[in-house]
Design brief:
Elements lengths: L1 H27 L4 E7 L5 E7 L24 H8 L7 H4 L6 E3 L9 E2 L2 E2 H4 L12 E3 L1 H4 L9 H17 L2 H15 L5
Parallel strand pairs: 3-6
Antiparallel strand pairs: 1-2, 4-5
Helix pairs in contact: 1-2
Organism: Qipengyuania aquimaris
Keywords: Exopolysaccharide synthesis
InterPro entries: Bact_transf
């Protein structure tokens, strides 16, 4: 399913990917991709791809500082692609490489912090979330656990939903999450 849907989606979105890459390059001349080490399946490190949304000199490679609303590090193009989640599209290349799945627990940066603690220091069950490949989207995302994870409760809530996904995994659950993700990405309705 990952390979089939991933390749079809990449093909359909190729023009969007090229336009966004060009817009980022034209804005400040820096690279259009942001490559960040993330923790994946079996606790292995892989290089996750994203469109670069921050100024080159302020990019946070270890992920220790979460992006905040009105973050001065974010570029003009970056604001648009982050608001629409377009910055995540290059992860479609991680899928056929076998590093990511379309659906699964979202991969975290190595230096991600909540309450000034690394994620794995907060809950001993943290490492269980790496029993599956990380996903471009997941159950936690469609349940509203997106964005900044700055408190221990934020991490614990996401972790519990990730573990629920692992326990209850099925192809139907993945399809439900993919459809739910499309709904989450639709701009707010009046």
């Amino acid at each position: 399913m990952d390979l089939l849907i991933g390749v079809i989606t990449l093909t359909i979105l190729a023009p969007v990917i090229m336009i966004v890459a060009l817009a980022i390059k034209l804005e400040d001349g820096g690279p259009f991709l942001f490559v960040q080490p993330r923790i994946g399946h079996g606790n292995r490190i892989f290089k996750m791809l994203k469109f670069r949304s921050m100024k080159v000199e302020t990019s946070d490679i270890d992920g220790s500082r979460s992006t905040t609303p009105n973050d001065a590090r974010v570029t003009k193009v970056g604001k648009i692609i982050r608001a629409t989640s377009i910055d995540e599209l290059p992860q479609l290349f991680n899928v056929p490489l076998g590093e990511m799945s379309l659906v699964g627990p979202r991969p975290h940066a190595l230096g991600s912090l909540a309450s000034d603690k690394l994620f794995w220091e907060i809950d001993g069950e943290y490492w269980q979330r790496h029993a599956l490949k990380p996903g471009m989207t997941g159950l936690a995302q469609i349940r509203g656990y997106r964005g900044v994870t700055d408190t221990e409760a934020h991490l614990t809530n996401r972790l519990q939903v990730d573990l629920e996904y692992i326990r209850d995994w099925s192809p139907w659950l993945d399809l439900k999450i993919l459809v739910g993700t499309l709904w989450v990405l639709v701009p707010e309705r009046p």
